[in-house]
Design brief:
Number of domains: 3
Bound molecules: adenosine-5'-diphosphate, magnesium ion
Strand content: 15-25%
Structural class: alpha+beta
Shape: elongated
Distance between the termini: 74 Å
């Protein structure tokens, strides 16, 4: 029998706000010292009053617009009651009946709703090795850090509309991009800023099977492996005529398997009830909702279409740019400089496909390489986009060689100087002194008779060697093609 898998995702993202969801404590994911950003409200002291964070609500409404949903006319917070030491209040303020956003669709996957809640603190188990944090009894201590307690957390719930692990990961990656484009969340899975619960079932009929919910998947790889593991496990159960239990499971990274944690809790177990300290509200009383829609930046899907059309790039190039908005805007600013310089007398081809491609190549390989190896980002780059454009125009006009371009780029990366300045101060440039170059070629031939003999015997690699020698003497100030021509003329 054919068992068809079905998956529904509940994706959580920590939102980027100045303060926490219901109080003035800072929402600072970079804070290393434990229990610094806390106050009586997020510590759940009795008698304190939560005040919802407008910036967090705005982020969620924007994510809703970006994913085709509609803001709920009326919205409400609810208490979800449960006990766990990372939740000092004994309940989590969440939304159940009237979430902020209803519906939507992303990559063909229907979205049920998006709601807003607060994150819990972090438990640090001593056996994970936190002696330096003051654990006295290494074996049995658990530490708790409430910096994260009360941080705004968005939850997006899809319909059971996905049918493979690949689709689930692709969906999450697209959502991650959208969150980053909106500035709503850094959505870094390694930092716990984005995580998902995956509900998985398999069925041989048109009706959905019983699902298992795998909680707290914190990497794309975990999402992928856990879903495939569940599909296999459940299919094998059904093939043996056994039943799948509806339950909550966890992903064991070390063993690469899911394990049962508890039978699935029902909504009634949480005894949800409307948060009495926050009255229900009409979104349109809080914001100009339609204006928020107009304020949305260009979304990844729109950028893809435009880049394909404007630059004729293939999907590999388009994805690289769309996946890194900092790089994409740097690229576009540099391209606009090509057009500004077109009229200039650089002797280059200016704004044209070959030059745009050259620009793309220097950006995506050389410059990106420099950025990666120095551990920085496009946002703190010293190089201005127009300077990269100038470099590429110089190269296209054959005023510098490829090797010189790489050296100049490295200098630009360090100092932020214009390539023309660097050429002047370092005395770089392609020599137009034919006499000088011919003299060097003649000298190299005289000094490397063995290589010359090899070349004459048909060893073409020797030509590369000779060109390299000449290039060295000229400190890179010659075009390799020109050297090759001169050598060939002398040696034939
Ligand atoms: P609960 O109230 O138990 O959280 P929901 O109806 O809110 O259940 O669904 C939670 C998630 O489970 C949603 O993403 C939904 O798409 C998914 N889901 C529900 N039923 C199934 C099923 N049979 N197979 C796979 N996913 C499912
Ligand atoms: Mg749910």
């Amino acid at each position: 029998m054919e068992y068809r898998p079905t998956i529904g995702l509940e994706v959580h993202a920590e939102l980027k706000t100045r303060t926490k969801m219901f109080c003035d404590s800072l929402n600072d994911p970079d804070e290393k010292r434990p229990n610094v950003n806390v106050c009586p409200v997020c510590l759940g002291h009795p008698g304190t009053l939560p005040v919802p964070n407008k910036q967090a609500i705005e982020h969620v409404v924007k994510v809703g617009f970006a994913t085709g949903g509609r803001p709920n006319g009326r919205s409400r917070f609810d208490r979800k009651n449960y006990f766990y030491p990372d939740l000092p209040k004994g309940y989590q303020i969440s939304q159940s009946g009237e979430p902020l956003v209803i519906g939507g669709e992303l990559r063909g996957v229907k979205i049920n709703h998006i709601h807003l809640e607060e994150d819990a603190g972090k438990l640090i188990h001593a056996e994970a090795g936190n002696k330096e944090q003051g654990t006295r009894n290494k074996e049995d201590a658990t530490l708790v850090d409430y910096n994260r307690a009360g941080v705004p957390l968005m939850e997006l719930v899809t319909e059971p509309d996905l049918h493979s692990a690949e689709e689930a990961v692709a969906f999450m990656k697209e959502l991650q991009l959208i969150l980053r484009y909106l500035g709503a969340s850094d959505a870094d899975l390694e930092r716990g800023q984005m995580r998902a619960d995956a509900n998985i079932s398999v069925s041989a009929t048109s009706e959905l099977g019983t699902r298992a919910e795998v909680k707290n998947l914190n990497s794309f790889n975990a999402v992928f492996q856990a879903i495939n593991y569940e599909i296999k496990r459940q299919t094998e159960l059904l093939e043996k005529n056994e039943t799948v239990r509806q339950e909550t499971r966890g992903w064991n990274e070390a063993k690469q398997e899911t394990t049962s944690q508890r039978s699935k809790e029902e909504a009634q177990d949480y005894r949800y009830f409307p948060e009495p300290d926050i009255p229900p509200f009409e979104l349109s009383n809080v914001f100009d909702v339609e204006r928020l829609k107009d304020l949305l930046p260009e979304m990844p899907a729109e950028k893809r279409v435009r880049f394909e059309k404007e630059y004729g790039f293939d999907s590999r190039r388009v994805e690289l740019l769309v996946g890194d908005p900092g790089m994409a805007s740097f690229f576009e600013e540099a391209v606009s400089e090509l057009s500004a310089s077109e009229a200039d007398d650089t002797g280059s081809r200016g704004l044209s496909m070959p030059v745009i491609t050259l620009l793309y190549n220097y950006l995506s390989s050389d410059l990106r390489g420099l950025i990666h190896s120095s551990g920085t980002a496009f946002s703190d780059l010293k190089i201005a986009p127009e300077h990269l454009a100038h470099l590429v125009l110089l190269l296209d006009a054959q005023k510098i060689t490829t090797r010189q371009a790489k050296d100049i780029l490295a200098k630009m990366f360090e100092t932020g100087a214009d390539p023309a300045e660097i050429m002047k101060s370092e005395n770089i440039g392609v020599s137009s002194n034919v006499d000088e170059i011919e003299a060097v070629v003649a000298a190299v031939v005289a000094e490397n008779q063995a290589a010359v003999a090899d070349y004459k015997k048909g060893k073409t690699a020797s030509m590369q060697f000779l060109i390299g020698k000449a290039m060295g003497k000229l400190k890179g100030r010659a075009r390799p093609e020109m050297l090759r021509d001169l050598f060939e003329r002398i040696l034939h």
